Amino acid sequence: MTIVKQTSPHIHRKDSLARMLIDVLVSLAPVSITALIVYGLAAFRNLMVSVATMSLCEFVFVLIMNRIPYDGTKHTLKEQFLHGVKEYRLYHLLGSLVSGVIFALIMPAATNPGYMIYIALILGAAFGMIIGKLVFGGLGQNIFNPAAVGMVFAKLCFGSKYVYATNDYVNGVSAGGTALSNLGNTSASLVGRYLEINDVATLDLFLGRVPGVIGEGFKFAILIGLIYLLIRRAADYRVVCSYLLGYTALMALAGIFVCVKVPEVNFGRFLLFQLLSGGVLFGATYMFTDPVTMPINAPGRVLYGLLGAGLTVIIRLFAALPEGVVFSLLLCNLAAPAIDHYAYSSNKFTWKKIAVMGGIFLIFVLGICFGLGFQEGVVR
C-alpha cells in the first residue's frame, strides 16, 4: 500500500484546488463590484493594496522555500530567483488573491488622518499573510484564516483611526462608528445599549446604508455569492446552516430577555438587526467556510458552526467589542484541530457526537440566560 501525504484542503470530488479558489473569487465578485460602485476609489485602493501586499508576501515565501540547495557551488541571485519562480503555481496566486480580496472587504473606507489607511492596509495584509499563513508552511497548512488575522491586527492597532463610511461616502458623508458601536458600551444599561435599534431601518441594514466596512453591508450581494458557493459546492452547507441557525436561535433567546426588560425594543427589529448588522452573513459565507481552517469530517463541521455561532453571540452581547464574528472565527480555527482528533474524527453522526453538540449549545444558552438575567435592566 502506498501512503500519499496531502495537505488541506482535502477535496472529495473530481476538482482542483485552483478551480475551488476561482469559485471563491467569482462568489466575491458581486460584493467587490458593489463596493467599487458605492465607494469608488476607496474600494479600489483597498483591493489593490491588500491583494498586492499579500501576493508579494506569498511570492517571496515561495522564492525563499524553493531556493537552490547548497551543493558546493555559489549561485547568483538570478539563478536563485529563476529556480524559485519555477515552483510558483497558479494556486499560490489564487490563494493570495482570495485572502487579499476578503481582507480588503472587511476593512473601512478611510481613516483619520487619511494616510493611515495605507499603513493599516499594508501592515494588516502583511501580518495576516505572514503570521496567519506562511509561518505554518503556506497554503493548506495554516490553522488561522489570514484575512481574519490581518483584520484583528489592524483593528487593534488602528481601530481608533477608522472612519466607517455609509453609502453616502462618495458624497463625503461618513460616520465614526458602526451600527453595532453602541452595543459595545458594556457600562450602559439595557436601555442605553439596545433602544437605538428601533431607529435603524431593516432595509438600510440590508442595503448597506449604515456605517461599516466596505464589504459587509451589501447583504444582497453576499447572498448571491453564498448561493453560488453552495451550488458549486465550494462551501459546505453544514457550516453555513449550523452557524446561521445556531446564531439565530441564540439571538432570539437573547431578544426575549432584552424585550422583557426593555419593552420599548421590538423583538423582530432586534433579531433582524443582529442578523443583518456587522459581518454575520459575510463571515458565514466567506470566512467560516474556508476549507483549510475548518474541520474535515461532517459532524465536526456542524460543531464548528455551532461553536462559532455561540461565541459570536457571547462576544456581541457581553464583550467590549460588539463585532464578534472575526474573533469567534479565530477561536474556532484554534479549536478545529481538536475537533479533528483521530479518536473521534469520522463522518458518522453518533449519539455521542450529537450529545456533545447539544451540550455545547446548552452551555451557550445558560450563559445567555445568566448573563442577561442578571444584567441591569431599565435604568433611565
What are the low-pLDDT stretches, counting only 5+ consecutive residues below 50? 169-175
How much strand? under 5%
The strand line-up of the biggest sheet is 1-2-3
The total of beta strands comes to 3
Binned, the helix content reads: 55-70%
Number of helical elements: 15
- Using the CA coordinates, give the radius of gyration: 22 Å
How would you spell out the order of helices and strands?
HHHHEHHEEHHHHHHHHH
Structural class: mainly alpha
Largest sheet: 3 strands, antiparallel
Instruction: Tell me, briefly, the overall form.
Output: globular
Distance between the termini: 73 Å
Q: pLDDT average, as an integer?
A: 86
Chain-wise SSE layout:
Layout: H1 17-39, H2 41-65, H3 77-85, H4 90-105, E1 110-111, H5 116-132, H6 146-158, E2 162-165, E3 174-175, H7 190-194, H8 202-207, H9 219-231, H10 237-261, H11 267-276, H12 280-287, H13 298-318, H14 325-339, H15 351-373
Antiparallel strand pairs: 1-2, 2-3
Tell me about this structure.
This protein is 60% helix and 2% strand. The protein is mostly helical. Residues 169-175 have low confidence and may be disordered.
Give descriptors for this structure:
3 strands; three-stranded antiparallel β-sheet
Summary?
This protein has 380 residues and is an all-alpha fold. The protein has helices at residues 17-39, 41-65, 77-85, 90-105, 116-132, 146-158, 190-194, 202-207, 219-231, 237-261, 267-276, 280-287, 298-318, 325-339, 351-373; strands at 110-111, 162-165, 174-175.
